[in-house]
Amino acid sequence: MGIFDRFTGKQEQTQARAVPRHIAVIMDGNGRWAKKRGLPRKAGHKVGAETFRTIATYCKDIGVQYFTVYAFSTENWKRPQDEVDALMNLFRTYLREAAETMVERGVAVRVLGDLSVLPPDLLRQIDEVHALADTLGEQAATASLCINYGGRDEIKNAVRALARQVAEGTLRPEDITEDTIGAQLYTAHMPDPDLIIRPSGEIRTSNFLLWQSAYAEYYFTDVLWPDFKPEHMDAAIEDFNRRSRRFGGV
Ligand code: IPE
Ligand code: IPE
Ligand code: MG
Q1: Which ligand 1 atom is nearest residue 33's CA?
Q2: SS3 category, 198
Q3: Residues with catalytic annotation?
Q4: Ligand nearest to the CA of 204
Q5: Atom of ligand 1 nearest to the CA of 26
Q6: Exposure winner among 54, 59, 111, 135, fewest CB in 10 A?
Q7: Which residues of the chain have pLDDT under 50?
Q8: Helices marked H in the chain — which ranges?
Q9: How many CB atoms lie within 10 A of CB 182?
Q10: What is the pTM of this model?
């Protein structure tokens, strides 16, 4: 509770609210949302994709610079083929929209993960979106979609890349630092997440941003992702703002 509460009106208070620079979300609970309604799981993913649009826009509007979502894990290939196909189609639809609107909206959309095994047409869409993202300036907000993302897989790839440089003689083992490792990760161009939100009642990371989350604040809620509204984001941010981040200090 700060000076703003006492001296400014409600509206100014909202504007003065501190927002985390980087918010990440494990978008979970789509399947259970559908099941509760007697619908196929993919119906939950469709509504979950709408929620993503709403919340990504909300985050940009309130001044969050980086918004990162876990959309498909390296483990999610185990799901039935028709569910995987439905998810890939939702990614296609979203990326098409992103290509059409991201420049005018000032949001750089990026896809993080091992993209090498994605269907070629999806890969082409991702390349197109990344090329557009590269044209946006420093001022643009960034929305990142993690697809075929796994934290362990990401670290394994980073280790391989560094090992290759050592083998080639271009890197000495003693020159490997936390920064050189961080620079090999998909998130090399962004700060670590400040706040990681997991809806749906599960209290685990499920392999999300393992390296980057070292000092993230976690927020768990029972709300299923398709039901997640801007007011739930507000509640998470309020909770975040009440925490004392010490980063190991006092
Ligand atoms: C999250 O919802 C979306 C993905 C993992 C792709 P789930 O599909 O995991 O939903 P639940 O956990 O089964 O409810
Ligand atoms: C994590 O959710 C992955 C995504 C949200 C994309 P899961 O539903 O796959 O995780 P588990 O199986 O509950 O750990
Ligand atoms: Mg799940």
Answers
A1: 14
A2: strand
A3: 28, 76
A4: 2
A5: 1
A6: 135
A7: 1-13
A8: 3-7, 10-16, 30-36, 41-61, 81-105, 120-135, 151-168, 178-182, 230-242
A9: 14
A10: 0.94
